[in-house]
Amino acid sequence: MSKVILGIESSCDETAIAITRDGVLLCNVVSTQIDVHQKYGGVMPEIASRLHTENILIVLKEALEKSKISLSEIDAIAVTRGPGLIGALHVGMQAAKTLALTLNKPLIPVHHLAAHIYANEFVTPLKFPLLAVIVSGGNTEFVIMKDHLQFEIIGETKDDAIGECYDKVARVLGLGYPGGIPVDRLAQTGVHTYKLPSPMLKDGYDFSFSGLKTNIINLVNNAKQRGEDINVANLCTSFQETAMDVIISKAVKAAQAFKAKQVIIAGGVSANSYLRKNIVKEITALGIEVTIPPMWCCTDQAAMIAKLGEYLYDISLFAPLSVSVDPNWMINDFDKF
Ligand code: KG4
Q1: 23 C-alpha to center of ligand 1: Å?
Q2: pLDDT in tens, 210-261
Q3: Are residues 49 and 167 in the same domain?
Q4: pLDDT digits (tens, 9 = 90+) for 296-333
Q5: What is the DSSP string of 15-80?
Q6: Structural domain that includes position 155
Q7: Which of ligand 1's atoms lies nearest the C-alpha of 12?
Q8: What spacing in Å lies between the alpha carbon of 268 and ligand 1's midpoint?
Q9: Which of 18, 244, 257, 274 has the most CB atoms lying inside 10 A of its own CB?
């Protein structure tokens, strides 16, 4: 019996629907709102919800056409329940509930970050114990998995997420939104000349990025006041290497301490060139496998929602239609709703 899962993602500024059949991706439609939010220098939650509402049925129609799957062939609807923007999450959830009700099929709530981990299964099967380095606009955390669907958070940011820090640094340097891509691009052309603090380098597996961010904002503002020039490329390089070296050195320690068989990176910031190159170098030097997701898996999409949805379907982790979204859902509570 084949298993067809329809996945829906709407946690931030991408409206996305994907369909898998027995693990094979049949379609992966993503409608991004990034152009609209760019004008405001960040995602405007109210506008995001409105655009999801406008786009979701168009995306659904395209997904069905591309996959050549009819609604009656779908076995379950998997949907992002959190974390994310509350209004944005609601749009995907209501669409999923409507499909589940009218098709009389199970509704599967999916944790967005757990799905980012499972996106790596499009590259290679997960191997346990596994260390997941989750780096995104809203989260920075290390998760240990001893087996499928077992998530233990061993470290997390105490303040800003790494992606948020990239976005703020880009803003003070006038590089636009989202900031990760232009900062990464410039960092590849510069030299590490600015001395910046390496936050919580020695303290376990937790992170703190707000001090580093404030340090750069002050450095730029002080230079402006004194009429001094900033070498933007060099500052981007110094920031990138300082921030990423903290993450990489903690990943090396955690991979050894938890005897990881595989290290994976997940989330929007896993597109970062320095992180991708250097985490591979450092972790493979330990004889541990590293999986780097392809670029299409780094950004938000619903292929990962359908992929994790398959595992949850197998354990019948279904929700009643009264289920709601949770903008602060923790990964270790992925089965509680
Ligand atoms: O996971 P994601 O798509 O969304 C949320 O967490 O909401 O991550 C988006 C984040 C943004 O902060 C963006 O600036 C960052 O990922 N990002 C990058 C790069 N590409 C995107 N950060 C560093 N280097 C990159 N190449």
Answers
A1: 26
A2: 999 999 999 999 999 999 999 999 999 999 999 999 999 999 999 999 999 9
A3: no
A4: 988 999 999 999 999 999 999 999 999 999 999 999 99
A5: EEEEEEETTEEEEEEEEE-HHHHHTTTS--HHHHHHHHHHHHHHHHHHHHHHHT--GGG--EEEEE
A6: 125-292
A7: 7
A8: 4
A9: 18
